[in-house]
Give the backbone structure.
Amino acid sequence: MMTSFFPLWPVAASEHAHSVDLLVIAFSVLIVALSAPVFILMAWFAVKYRRGKPADRRHPVHRKTWAEVSWSAIPFFLILGFFVWSSVLFYQLYHPPPDALEINVVAKRWMWKFQHPGGQAEINELHVPTGKPVKLLMTSQDVIHSLYLPALRLKQDVLPDRTTTEWFNADKPGTYILTCAEFCGTDHSQMGGRLIVQTPQDYARWLDKSGVGMSLAEQGEALFVKVGCSGCHSPAATVHAPQLQGLYGRQVPLDNGRTVTADDSYIRDSILEPQKDVAAGYPRIMPTFKNVLSEADISKLIAFIKSTPSTGSAHP
Amino acid sequence: MTSERADYADLPGAAGYGESEAIQKSYLRAGHTLRSWFLTTDHKRIAILYLISVTFFFFVGGAAAALIRADLLTPQGDLLSNEGYNRAFTLHGVIMVWFFLIPSIPTTFGNFLIPLMIGARDLAFPRLNLLSWYIYVLGGLCTIYVLISGGVDTGWTFYTPLSSMFSNGHVVMAATAVFIVGFSSILTGLNFIVTVHKLRCPGMSWGRLPLFVWSHYATSVILVLATPVLSITLALIAAERVFQLGIFDPALGGDPLLYQHLFWFYSHPAVYIMVLPALGVISELITAAARKPIFGYWFVAGSSIAIALLAFLVWGHHMFVAGQSMYASEIFSFLSLAVAVPSGIKVYNWTATLYKGHISLDPPFLFAMGFVGLFVVGGLTGLILAMVAIDVHVHDTYFVVAHFHYIMVGGTVSAFFGALHYWWPKITGRLYNLVWGRVTAVLIFVGFNLTFFPQFILGYLGMPRRYHVYDPHLQVLNDMSSSGAAILAVAYLIPFVYLFYSLRYSPAAPANPWDVTGLEWTVPSPPPKHNFDEIPVVTTKPYNYPVEQKGDGDA
């Protein structure tokens, strides 16, 4: 949180945040250098060549076209250098390390719900450890929201019916602002909470204290049986349905000839809109679970499917 | 104008500041009935009708801004409820964008001046011009209905599925208002394009068009090409809300990002609809103040066209964090940076125009200087926002709010006031008090910066836009902003007093009070109903001021 009465610069709690700050400062220096001549010359000319004041106003006979071209081209090439710099930082935001800690986020008007892999759930507060990449898998239950973490210089819109991600590696323990940046209706300006960055030891202690006995995947497994998925999708079932063991990350051939990767959004779509992409060789008989499962339930099921080990063969 | 002051006694009608012959024969006196105003096809009278209507909406939108800034004085948002605040900023945005900024300069000064500047007796379609005004008024009445029946709470951007399925305000009526006023824009744009192509007087080649006309031509192209996209998008929102058609709401099988693509495909070019006419005004004011030909005529004229074309290729920079593909974001980032080139050309060329000029410090020039300062800050912070990695942090924060107010209010509104002070003698036939004009120009500049500069800092500190409950540590910066807004409000009201005063008590204006070039200054002030007794023939370049050259008087 900001502590000063008159803050001028936000705290930075990750290496990425420092990189963005450096880029902003360097780029600001460039644009001040590009615009200062305009301000200085305009003011100077207004004084020096004021109407009625004697001054040398004789122009050279030939105009210099190269001057006109150069004062557009040179700044543009300088700016392009910064474009590359910024694009590299942006590229990193789309490429989280594979070992990142995955936390599920569900946004709804006007609260944030976070679910840790160990099953711990929290509302409007997000506990994360330092020194470990954290990847947020986010979806919304109603309108578009945006999870904004100013101390990490990060923001990503959270959409209904879709999973978006944002990842970071916080390095400074503390309590920071967590807020919604996309206008979402009446209480938009109060849809926020706290990002609590802890040392790994404190984080482990918090996980212990908040534990519910079952990890997210275990809760998903219980749900898998409870809502009836296992009736078809288990080896003992008589219905001809795909086995989900080790499905996550595999290539799935579809009955329309395409092939998709079984990622979060494919599994999610298959639960909510089973007729959209049907695996090749299976009848179109699965019902939708749209009004049966909440977004939080779906993330538990996905966690369960992810946790099942791959057996090496496509059809065990 | 200063040089003329000593000669007031010699001016026609100066005795007791009565009416000059020009005023008696002018378009203002060609008919006194209501019918002669409300059914007029004279582009000058229609411009006056527009001037009154857009000014009305400027003050309605301004009142909403005053409420917003008053509410933000305290971090708890004591003045308004959450719902009330959302309705206030939505109406502020809707009214200012569609009922003031977009029509502001084109429908008033463009309407009044384009025929005069190109040596025509009217626009190509005078009755269509009147129809545009009636359509504008109809859209305006729908907006007023929304205002008094409780408002709308979606933000001016009407993002789905909030607007289509969740909001409980008058979304359909507000969308209808914007839909209707869009046709007014389309018809005005069409009228301008045909007029510039077909009604230029003999000798007025494309290379002799005033830059004001060039920039309005570029604006008209955008109006005609982009506005229909907005109209159909708003119609789709209404269809989804009323008939549950699944277009944008995923619960009905739609795609919310599709809405954002369609909306910004119009709304980014709309920013250039607002700013291009302003750039044209400033080119006129600077050459007139410097009494020098514009530096690099073709570069300045061509940059208007380049801006209009690039305007259609940068909409995705509003969606860097919305969930579009990384590669799309990189491309939109690059194209957005490219807009800096034509914009930079204009600013550097204006500076070069002042070099070795004969610069007068009258109000129009001071407004132009204010414009350049604010436009440059707005443009360069736009480059910061176009840098994708930085935008991820400052997107949807007060940094963005500050940036676009520098362009739209600091830029366009300053240019609007500059145009008002430059062409006021031509439009009304009256001079006005130059000292008050200078005071206003300076006050607007100071008030504006105090209002909006702190918002850049607020944004980088992480204050999201559309927040009325905010972190208490940000109160000092917010209070600075609100106090600047109070100065700005006063500065916008002062011209009302001295300009209205001038209508009755100031000396009559000569045909060319600033002693400048341009066909509009060759006719009496105010112009007669048919503009030109005889259609003029143009034989010289625009801004044909004498330039001292090396060798000219060396002996």
